[in-house]
């Protein structure tokens, strides 16, 4: 798994590539926490390069969404979610908890 | 049968194993992803719960086609962990009330046709899962 982050004026874009499972979820969480610990709570996660995500990754998303939405200070949104991962998120009932965008520019513009 | 150290870094290999068997067995790519996810969740639970607090656990995985079904068995010698006793998460709960636990077991049950578990004192724990093609 690989993470890169890019800071925009109104939000941060975190790009995650590869596989997020129980072995790598902690690293994924650390990537998200690096942003929220810096006091930035508007985050778009670009999943276009994501091959796989298990419930360990879903848990990281949920925990981060809670941190971001606290005090209405921000939100975490998902961008370019691959079909298989979207299906699994749907099965887990997670799609209602996250806005999703097909276009990274629209996601950034959402904030 | 394949034997793995019960550590998260071996999940990749377990997912590769079941994908290989499923692909040869004629499952679609969508089904293969589901089978990989179910196997990952099952193995993750064993590593996390059955072998909680240990680092030298062993996970034995059998994966084969039986007719038009894929059969996956996972054996461990850790603490009994019965997935059927895990409460189903409330998938309608809002963000603040959403439970984090139980999701892996829920996914396993939804993704596979059958999930069974047996624990025999002295003989370890056996989790079996089946999914029919198509």
Q: What class, by secondary structure content of chain B?
A: alpha+beta
Radius of gyration of chain A from CA coordinates:
12 Å
Please indicate the count of domains of chain B.
1
SSE succession of chain B: EHHEEHEE
Q: State which percent range the strand residues of chain B make up.
A: 25-35%
Whole-angstrom Rg of chain B: 15 Å
Output the keywords.
heterodimer; A: 111 residues; alpha/beta; Transcription Regulator spoIIAA; six-stranded mixed β-sheet; 4 helices; globular; B: 134 residues; alpha+beta; Heat Shock Protein 90; five-stranded antiparallel β-sheet; 28% strand
Walk me through this protein's architecture.
The complex is a heterodimer of chains A (111) and B (134). In chain A, strands 1, 2, 3, 4, 5 and 6 form a 6-stranded mixed β-sheet that branches. The radius of gyration of chain A is 12 Å and the shape is globular. Chain A has 111 residues and is α/β, with parallel strands linked by helices. Chain A has helices at residues 25-36, 55-69, 83-91, 104-109, and strands at residues 2-7, 12-20, 42-46, 50-53, 75-79, 100-101. Chain A has a single domain (2-109), classed as STAS domain (Transcription Regulator spoIIAA, 2-Layer Sandwich). Chain B has one domain: Histidine kinase-like ATPase, C-terminal domain (Heat Shock Protein 90, 2-Layer Sandwich). In chain B, helix 2 packs antiparallel against helix 3. The two termini of chain B are 25 Å apart. The mean pLDDT of chain B is 93. The chains are: A alpha/beta (111), B alpha+beta (134). The interface between A and B is medium-sized, with 22 and 27 residues.
């Amino acid at each position: 798994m690989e993470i890169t982050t890019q800071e925009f004026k109104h939000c941060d874009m975190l790009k995650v590539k590869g596989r997020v499972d129980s072995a790598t979820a902690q690293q994924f969480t650390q990537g998200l926490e690096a942003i929220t610990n810096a006091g930035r709570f508007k985050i778009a996660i670009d999943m276009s390069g994501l091959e796989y995500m298990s419930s360990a990754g879903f848990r990281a998303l949920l925990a981060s969404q809670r941190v971001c939405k606290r005090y209405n200070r921000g939100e975490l949104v998902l961008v370019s979610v691959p079909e298989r991962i979207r299906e699994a998120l749907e099965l887990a009932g997670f799609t209602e908890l996250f806005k999703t965008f097909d276009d990274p520019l629209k996601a950034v513009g959402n904030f | 049968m394949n034997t793995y150290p019960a550590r998260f870094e071996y999940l990749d290999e377990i997912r590769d194993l079941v994908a290989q068997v499923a692909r040869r067995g004629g499952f679609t790519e969508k089904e293969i992803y589901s089978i990989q996810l179910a196997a990952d969740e099952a193995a993750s639970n064993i590593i996390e719960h059955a072998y909680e607090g240990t680092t030298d656990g062993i996970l034995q995985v059998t994966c084969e086609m039986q007719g038009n079904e894929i059969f996956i068995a996972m054996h461990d010698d850790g603490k009994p962990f019965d997935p059927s006793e895990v409460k189903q998460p409330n998938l309608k709960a809002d963000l603040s009330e959403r439970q984090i636990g139980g999701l892996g077991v829920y996914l396993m049950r939804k993704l596979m046709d059958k999930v069974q578990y047996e624990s025999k004192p002295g003989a370890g724990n056996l989790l079996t899962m089946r999914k029919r093609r198509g």
